Amino acid sequence: MARSSSASARLHAEIDALREADLRRRRTLKWGAIDADVLPAWVAEMDYPVAPAATEAVIAAVAKGDLGYPVARAYVEAFARWAWERQQWRVEPAQLTPVADVLAGIESALHTLTAPGDGVVVLTPTYPAFLRILKKLGRRLSECALLDGPDGWRMDFDAISDALAGGAKAVVLCHPHNPTGRVWSRAELTTLAGLVDAHGAHVVSDEIHAPLAADFVPYGLIAGHSVTVTSVTKGWNVAGLKGAVLVCQPETARVAAAIPPHERQRASVPSLAAGAALWSDDGGWLAAIRDYLALTRAELRKWVDDRPGIRWHTAETGYLAWLDVRDAGLGPDPAEVVLDRARVALDPGSRYAPTGSAVADGFIRFNHATSVPLLRTMLGRIGDLLDSVQ
Ligand SMILES: Cc1ncc(COP(=O)(O)O)c(C=O)c1O
């Protein structure tokens, strides 16, 4: 216990000391695709050091020349243990299929569970790739906007029920939800499952952000009409390693059956080795990062509370904040103005729904997974801009 809390304190000190110049040397999207004077709070990458368990697994695989086509047995077994120990969800390795990444798994699931022209429910604001997948597959978007209530974002069960009654064949669930940071409760999942069952539809549950949620009920524990896709890549911040696991239930086993062998080999040996290590024992990294994210979330909360023009239903997990800046005086394209004048890169809300959405236009997605000092610099720059426009 003492050992792990001192390791956590060391990691926190390392993060506090992160230097912008070092981060700027990264070749990942977050830091690699912006101008030299811009600070990034956009794409979902964290600035934190990689968990040593992942680094060691990748180095060991490369050192052994372990670079042929992968066998995913150790990876799926490690996930099955994780699901049982952390989520009290019993899944057998036979239910698990390795896939290239989470989006590839979602695409395969929708391809099998729905037909061209079918409606698919997406809860907006939504991670934009879901909209692109529907377009690519020729499925019809059945948009169900979340309700923006005084206590936070909620699913609109009437709208979901209407969409299913109108013929939608699947629901894409993002759990925890990107961009709002909602962790759907057991009661909400149970209500959703009842509606989906009543109409003989299916749920594809994207649980990529789940490892960061302390208190989490997997959708697969609630309903057999589902396929879950998850990965270590967001929780442990190794998106570039690729690799994910698709979990089918007996009712949805045809999704796995339709995935050809070559699509099961699209991750690499190093990525699956890192994944197996992280699902098994990450040396306390995730717990330490969760604690650090609580600090940056609190820092952002404090800043928002001092800005009457900004509204935020504090996220329940993770590092993404869905900020309503419609009354902040930044005009119709706030992310563009912040980039232009405060030199901070944000994700524009308008990408998170089809055009003209009351839950997306005029919002921004802010990624606070950086050090407290860098976060303060970004918030300081945006604060100066807000002071100048109000
Ligand atoms: C909800 C969600 N799903 C999927 C992805 C992408 O996952 P992958 O790179 O494994 O396809 C992201 C990336 O940010 C995400 O936030």
From TrEMBL:
Name this polypeptide is given: cysteine-S-conjugate beta-lyase
Molecular-function GO term, any one: transaminase activity
InterPro entries referenced in this protein's UniProt entry, alphabetically: Aminotransferase_I/II_large, Class-II_PLP-Dep_Aminotrans, PyrdxlP-dep_Trfase, PyrdxlP-dep_Trfase_major, PyrdxlP-dep_Trfase_small
Organism: Saccharopolyspora taberi
Domain Aminotransferase class I/classII large stretches: 69-369
Uppermost EC category: lyase
Required cofactor(s): pyridoxal 5'-phosphate
PANTHER family: CYSTATHIONINE BETA-LYASE-RELATED, PROTEIN MALY
Protein family according to the UniProt entry: Belongs to the class-II pyridoxal-phosphate-dependent aminotransferase family. MalY/PatB cystathionine beta-lyase subfamily.
Keywords: Aminotransferase, Lyase, Pyridoxal phosphate, Transferase
Entry EC number(s): 4.4.1.13
Pfam families membership: Aminotran_1_2
